[in-house]
């Protein structure tokens, strides 16, 4: 099968012919119909996010498609079922951006009515990141939460979820994104960090220390770069979300997407063979939606 891989020192993604994996006990193999390209994929391919022990790794976190085979112990899915999932198995040599992907059963959920395969492929990583980041922030209790990158993939999901949970949400984004941010649930909209202080910050834009400076003394900061958590200061608790597969959260994220509360946004599609072009689009920034690879 064909799969997206990155080799040490290459500085780019390549499509390689690799052996198709068999599902083990408690696993599912999916014939991938769409896989999203996320900024973390570009960080891996460019070497920004790379461990010296790695020689070749597969890329891709989000996938959607049809069940192709199941391992022993999986009795609630069958061949042909439409599913979506998250592949956190970095640094496996083959991952979601491939013709087939093997995932643990808890990393996969059925696609509900009302969602297309392509819409669904953009949901898992970003929605689970948003959910798990909000969990780290604790109970809202009417607190004021600043979300940076509020019009982006993680930020947009976090905005909707935080508003529904009872946070007083302030969305930070570009001026042109104000309508989307307010419609998604923001109580306030800002275009810059102007010295105001907030009880908590969810730094979806990875502004790091600049965003930390906006947290009130004794407040909470949650970022999205686990390997680069800002040092604590002024009694602030600093953390970063390291996304993990969670079937119940994934199921909820897909249901909220099908209902329209979460809004999967697709920038466009490329065949898997043109992964490099999709990566260039993501690296250029400014996307309001995910680029998808279609195997």
From TrEMBL:
InterPro entries according to UniProt: ADH-like_N, ER, GroES-like_sf, Lipid_raft_assoc_Zn_ADH, NAD(P)-bd_dom_sf
All residue ranges annotated as the Enoyl reductase (ER) domain in the record: 9-293
Entry-linked Pfam families: ADH_N, ADH_zinc_N_2
GO molecular function terms listed in the Swiss-Prot or TrEMBL record: oxidoreductase activity
The name this protein goes by in its record: Zinc-binding dehydrogenase
């Amino acid at each position: 099968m064909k799969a997206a891989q990155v080799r040490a020192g290459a500085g780019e993604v390549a499509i390689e012919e690799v052996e198709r994996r068999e599902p083990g006990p408690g696993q599912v193999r999916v014939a991938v119909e769409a896989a999203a390209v996320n900024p973390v994929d570009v960080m891996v391919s460019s070497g920004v996010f790379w461990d010296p022990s790695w020689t070749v790794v597969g890329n891709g976190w989000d996938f959607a498609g049809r069940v192709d085979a199941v391992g022993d112990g999986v009795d609630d899915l069958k061949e042909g079922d439409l599913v979506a999932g998250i592949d956190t198995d970095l640094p496996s040599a083959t991952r979601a951006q491939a013709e087939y992907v093997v995932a643990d059963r808890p990393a996969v959920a059925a696609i509900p009515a009302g969602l297309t395969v392509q819409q669904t492929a953009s949901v898992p990583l970003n929605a689970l990141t948003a959910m798990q980041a909000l969990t780290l922030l604790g109970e809202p209790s009417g607190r004021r939460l600043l979300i940076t990158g509020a019009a982006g993939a993680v930020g947009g999901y976090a905005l909707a979820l935080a508003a529904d949970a009872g946070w007083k949400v302030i969305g930070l984004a570009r001026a042109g994104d104000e309508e989307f941010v307010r419609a998604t649930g923001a109580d306030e909209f800002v275009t810059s960090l102007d010295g105001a202080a907030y009880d908590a910050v969810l730094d979806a834009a990875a502004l790091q220390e600049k965003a930390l400076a906006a947290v009130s003394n004794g407040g909470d900061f949650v970022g999205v770069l686990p390997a680069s958590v800002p040092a604590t200061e002024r009694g602030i608790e600093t953390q970063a979300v390291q996304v993990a597969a969670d079937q119940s959260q994934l199921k909820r994220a897909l249901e909220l997407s099908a209902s329209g509360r979460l809004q999967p946004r697709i920038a466009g599609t490329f065949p898997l063979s043109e992964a490099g072009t999709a990566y260039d689009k993501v690296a250029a920034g400014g996307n309001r939606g995910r680029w998808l690879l279609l195997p």
